[in-house]
Amino acid sequence: MSVTDNTPPQTNESTEVEGAATPFAASHRGFLQELLEVPPAFEEPLSRHTTARVGGPARAYVVLSNVLELKRLLAFLQENRLRHFMLGNGSNVLFTSKGFEGVVLQLGRPFERCEIKGRKVVAGGALLLSALAQRTAAKGLTGLEFGCGIPGTVGGSLVGNAGAGSESMADHLAYVDVLDWGHEIRRYCRGELQFSYRKSNLTELGQVVLGAHFRLADADPKAAKEKIAWLCNYRAETQPLRYPSAGCVFKNPRFDDMPSGQPLLSAGALIDRAGLKGLRVGDAEISTVHANFIINRGGAVSEDMLEVIRRARSRVKATFGVDLELEVRVVEA
User: Fold this and answer.
1) In this structure, which of 38, 172, 194, 298 has its CB flanked by the most CB atoms within 10 Å?
2) Shortest CA distance to 162 belongs to which of 127, 195, 193?
3) pLDDT at residue 15, as a whole number
């Protein structure tokens, strides 16, 4: 999972080139075709690779099979000043209908490893967090059950310190392996990292989260599985899982974000109380199940979703005086 679009990045999934980027050209295609074990796709619709099912074409879309490929490709992209975006599972991200004028990368199956020895767990950066939660619970380990309802990868979830309720990724982390900005593998202990609400400093330390090590606690396997089942049922009842979406659109405000005298409310509650459930632009709609989700009812495009976001922020600001901060990353072409 990326911590990179070449700025150094501000989110878990991209790196922006400083100054003017080089346009993607036929010569670049040739290098990708020779380097990669998995054939690259060109002019690939990103709607196929995002959970919101929106987004125009990427000039190139590649899947990495090993660390050597990743190192060589990142070096090539840097040397040739090509824009690139490292995509995880495609949640919490919106590409515009213009797509992406560069290379979109994803870590392949070799980065999905999961090894459990006693209370120690090693997870690849591309492993789905929901799969890790299920596997650790089945082994009688507790601590990551909250991840059963989070549609991201381990790497991306660490970069954004994903969580549910009072639990988050940082709680049981021992150390993390990243590919740094010099294309070297570095290991950072939990004490060397900084985590806060939906945030970490991993983007400052490296381009890609290759894997992570967790230390969990023993639990009764039956109890752990029952907790997973309860959390999954609760998610199904309280989130609009029937429709594609990018996940929660806005971060929940903190006490300091609320005007004096206003009670602390979640982003979804603020949108709901502003009367915006069911607001629709094209086929993009604020869910009537959970107001912090913008669903794709079948034919939405990115611009529909962005207009819904704009209207929601404007109405909440006018009604409550609260500036909603995006949790979803909007990636410009």
Assistant:
1) 172
2) 195
3) 52
